[in-house]
C-alpha cells in the first residue's frame, strides 16, 4: 500500500488477519506490522475498530457509516429550511 493511500475496509480486515496469523506463528507485532507495511499505531487503531469483523461485515459497516453521514446532512438541511420558513412566517425576517 502506498504511503498516503487509505485502504478499504476489506483491505484492513485482510491485513489484520495476516498480522494475527504471523503473531500466532511467533513473530512480534512490530515485525508482523513491518512485513505488512503498516505502522503499529494503525494496526492497533484498526484492531479496535475492525477487530473480529469479517470482510463482508466491514464492507457493510462502512456502507452504513456513509449512509448515516448522508442522512445526518439531510436532516440538518431540512432543519435549517424549517427554521427559515418559521422565521419568515412569524415576520422575523
TrEMBL record:
SUPFAM superfamilies: Homeodomain-like
Keywords, comma-separated and alphabetical: Coiled coil
Entry-linked Pfam families: HTH_Tnp_1 (PF01527)
Keyword hit for Coiled coil: yes
The keyword NADP belongs to this UniProt entry's keyword annotation: no
Lineage: Bacteria, Pseudomonadati, Pseudomonadota, Alphaproteobacteria, Hyphomicrobiales
Source species, domain of life: Bacteria
Coiled coil: 54-81
InterPro entries, sorted: Homeodomain-like_sf (IPR009057), Transposase_8 (IPR002514), Transposase_8_domain (IPR052546)
Species whose genome carries this gene: Methylobacterium iners
Record's protein name: IS3 family transposase ISMdi3
